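Continuing from yesterday's entry. The apo prediction looked reasonable, so today I'm repeating it with adenosine-5'-triphosphate included to see how the binding region is handled. Same sequence as before; SMILES copied from the compound registry.
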Amino acid sequence: MKPPSLEPPSAEPPLPAPVLDMRHVSVSYGAHVPAVLGVDLTIRPREIVGIIGESGSGKSTLAHSVLGLLPKTARMSGTRFNLAGTDILKADRTALAALRGPAAAMIFQNPMTAFSPIHTLGRQLTDLLWRDRDPSGAQKRARIVAALAEVGIPDPVGRLDAFPFQLSGGMLQRVAIAAALLMQPALLIADEPTTALDVTMEAQILHLMRSLRERAGVSILIISHHLGVIAEICDRVAVMYAGRIVEEGTVEAIFRAPRHPYTQALFACEPALVPTGMRRLPVIAGEVPRPGASLCDFASRCAVKAARCVEQAPPWTRSGEFPGHHVRCHGSALSGSPPSGRTP
Ligand SMILES: Nc1ncnc2c1ncn2[C@@H]1O[C@H](COP(=O)(O)OP(=O)(O)OP(=O)(O)O)[C@@H](O)[C@H]1O
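Holo prediction written out below.
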């Protein structure tokens, strides 16, 4: 007779292996300038994760580290840094280059910088498919035309002979998304993908990115200063300040119950969509300090700073009623009353 199992019945199926798994990852430029400090970040298949934070908080450095796009002066360390099963910390430049495309691809703020100005779009999109064997090129061409049509490029066949400067910024960003459709990377990194676009085009690009997740199963890491974009498209949000993630949670948790004084201040600085009078927008006084300059890097700008904030490093604490909501702040860990949030 089969002995009874001693394993407790598992209530939920195990989570799929993450596409990106970072543990205590730091990046510094030169010997003494840390830009990213001890970051833990996990992105699972089909997840859309957003990073918000002021200029200089380390968002782009973090994104570039995933793609091996950091300058040679940059130094990376960590206890784990896996992208689609590859250990980024052990990979050399050739191995990192091989990951671009199948493992991770990037969409930039200015799509013009993503394309060569001297080659046609057809040629550049064909180059992305260099791994595929197709001697006549007919299958590649058909796939490219289908991808361009899917992202709403009018006359996709005619556009194969166009140069990047012949398309508007919004159209070119669509072509960048078509490129991602062709490569089907495990992870798409989008660094301010809609900042240069008008609101109509922004909505269309966000819609296309969401359909990339639905149709191709792509995970997305999106960086944006625009909180509306993050609320619209993300499942989870990480708030970066001075190289560290200071708060992380679902969109609902971060927008409805932000706990870190920095996250609250970021929201307070966001202009209201409907004007509420001639109120001056608040600003966060001071500047982002050098990461690691003090135990809590926000203490010098924090309106609710307490003595312990400069005596002990703030703990990474589970916070509030939302699962997976964490914050790195003494004050939030202690206070029970949720601050006023926003409707995502
Ligand atoms: N190539 C570089 N060499 C030296 N320092 C750099 C380099 N790139 C970025 N830094 C510094 O690293 C820190 C983080 O910069 P990073 O561009 O990652 O921030 P960010 O949050 O993406 O800012 P932004 O929103 O303005 O793009 C800043 O202090 C910046 O000056």
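Comparison notes:
- DSSP finds eleven helices and 13 strands in the chain.
- The CA atoms of residues 21 and 324 lie 16 Å apart.
Will overlay with the apo model tomorrow.
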